[in-house]
């Protein structure tokens, strides 16, 4: 995708949809990290998690399904619609979801928190889409959604400290996705739970240094993800004050140089390919932070310049022929380009 094309249209959407269609049923290579208690837990991926087993790992399979639903909603006449519907019909069946439920009954905290946060996003996407087929898929998915939400409720309540890394275990990013799901589905108890935990973990944070990022091969920014969560939780004035204390180094000179975007020298390297996602997620987190500030806030233009810079770098050559990126990074591009994290805004 050329870096000068920063919006989404049907042609670009078709490229992203094809990335998922190419991997959603591709079982190998496969990367799966989980606790095995018996031979029952050692099976081929298609038997362990029969709905979500392609695209290298469970979480990528889940958010690949989210991508298809998201793009079908926005491009109902697109050429990829029929193939996407067929793929979703094959995955979201009562039998396969029961297989997923059985897996989570054996391993209740599997793919916590990143993968299950995306599962809730898939449920939220179907919940919002007023379409007969979406309603059918929503009904099929709902038992798994309820099981995971219940497990998450216990997990969040018991969580004593946040994970501040930039990969799958990070707490702030997952809580943001969960909070959006809870608001979309009007789950007041879960909303309160997440908001309280966010305040407990992050309200007193001060003087975070972005110069230490990325931490290794991050695909999420620990600092920006935290700020993107807190703009969901705090009123505008309180968030502006919190941001001043948390990221005092944000300049007001409309410069993008204060937050450099990492490059990818070897797109075949699965870890280095994370930097594609880091640029994209930084872009949407910066846009989220902007949305939490008053129009008069002098930091907005600086944040906007940095967001544009990361958007340009993240979208350059995003449709990669290498599986290291192609199995997952389209989701991050679609999340950014369709403004998914910005409440009340669509393409």
Automatic annotation (TrEMBL):
The family database entries (InterPro entries) matched by this protein are listed as: DUF2891 (IPR021365)
Superkingdom field: Bacteria
The identity of this protein, by name, is: DUF2891 domain-containing protein
Q: What is the lineage of its organism?
A: Bacteria, Bacillati, Cyanobacteriota, Cyanophyceae, Nostocales
> Mind telling me which Pfam families this protein's record contains?
DUF2891 (PF11199)
């Amino acid at each position: 995708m050329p870096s000068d094309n920063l919006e989404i249209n049907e042609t670009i959407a078709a490229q992203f949809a094809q990335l998922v269609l190419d991997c959603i049923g591709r079982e190998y290579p496969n990367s799966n990290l989980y606790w095995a208690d018996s031979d029952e837990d050692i099976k081929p991926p298609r038997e362990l998690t029969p709905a979500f087993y392609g695209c290298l790992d469970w979480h990528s399979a889940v958010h690949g399904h989210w991508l298809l639903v998201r793009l079908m909603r926005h491009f109902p006449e697109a050429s990829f619609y029929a193939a996407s519907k067929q793929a979703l019909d094959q995955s979201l069946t009562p039998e396969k979801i029961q297989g997923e439920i059985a897996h989570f009954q054996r391993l209740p905290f599997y793919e916590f928190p990143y993968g299950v946060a995306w599962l809730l996003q898939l449920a939220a996407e179907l919940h919002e889409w007023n379409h007969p087929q979406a309603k059918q898929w929503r009904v099929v998915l709902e038992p798994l959604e309820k099981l995971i939400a219940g497990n998450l409720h216990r997990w969040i309540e018991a969580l004593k400290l946040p994970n501040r890394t930039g990969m799958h275990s990070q707490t702030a990013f997952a809580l943001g996705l969960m909070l959006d799901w809870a608001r979309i589905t009007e789950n007041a108890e879960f909303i309160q739970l997440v908001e309280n935990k966010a305040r407990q973990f992050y309200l007193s944070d001060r003087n975070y240094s972005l110069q230490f990022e990325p931490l290794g091969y991050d695909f999420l920014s620990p600092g920006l993800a935290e700020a993107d969560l807190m703009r969901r939780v705090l009123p505008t004035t309180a968030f502006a004050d919190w941001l001043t204390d948390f990221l005092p180094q944000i300049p007001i000179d409309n410069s993008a140089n204060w937050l450099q975007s990492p490059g990818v020298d070897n797109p075949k390297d699965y870890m280095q390919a994370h930097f594609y996602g880091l640029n994209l997620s930084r872009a949407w987190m910066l846009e989220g932070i902007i949305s939490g500030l008053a129009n008069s806030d002098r930091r907005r233009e600086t944040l906007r310049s940095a967001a544009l810079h990361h958007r340009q770098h993240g979208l350059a050559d995003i449709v990669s022929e290498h599986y290291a990126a192609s199995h997952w990074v389209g989701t991050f591009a679609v999340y950014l380009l369709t403004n998914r994290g910005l409440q009340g805004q669509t393409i």
